[in-house]
Predict the structure.
Amino acid sequence: LYLCYAQTVAEGMRTGLFKAVAHPELYMFNPFAWNDDCRRASDIILDAAVSTNTVLEYNANGLRRAQVEFPDGVRHPYPCSRFWEMAARAPVRVIVGSDCHDPAYLWDEAVALAYRNLHALGIEPITELMM
């Protein structure tokens, strides 16, 4: 279903109704290992984001969650590092989302870590969405 999900996200971006996509790699929040379909789904989403100039959100809330064992290693449930490594090679715009379910999380260590992770990948996130 990765490819179906990615095509649906891409179709949504092509409508022009959205400035940003939250959790663009949320399809990786599952108990399965990264595979070629995951890579192809990432390509579909990244290509659509570039062609439509849609911003992709790097969601910090997953960094607040404990790292867990997945078939391809121990990691946070999201953001998915393999997706963002691919995003670093594309001319895509990225914004950090705190996804704060509590005001204390508006700017916390998870948000700071999100910025550090993106900078380590060579991604300079934008800081606001223009209307």
Observations:
- The chain has a mean pLDDT of 94.
